[in-house]
Amino acid sequence: MRCLNRNKCKFWYCLYMGSDTERVDEWGNATGEFPPIYGEPVEMMANISPASGRSNIDVFGALENYDKVIVTSDMNCPIDERSVLYVDKEPGEGEQYDYIVRRVAKSLNHISIAIGKVKVS
Q1: pTM for this structure?
Q2: Helix H segments across the chain?
Q3: Residue 67, Cα to own-chain centre: how many angstroms?
Q4: pLDDT tens string 6-48
């Protein structure tokens, strides 16, 4: 019942590709920071809960710092805990992602993904 087509919403995910380029300051000096690199946004359809609740806490153990849960029956879903998501907005020029993955819980028939809203500057 959770993965009916009529319950699915569109969102985009970007997979983590690595962090091999060191950031430099305005004088060209290395800062020691390696910002993450993400792939291109990929569109996906899945059930997205409106907000977290007490019933969702048990799925992820004691994890309480998440805002929504994505449920998909696609057992080949590549989203992991380093992925970023566009849920409440679409990816575009200059647009930053608005959610990060907090935890992924796989079961026999579906995958539950706890996501948390972030503000990226």
Answers
A1: 0.80
A2: 54-57
A3: 11
A4: 889 999 999 999 988 899 999 999 999 998 999 999 999 999 9
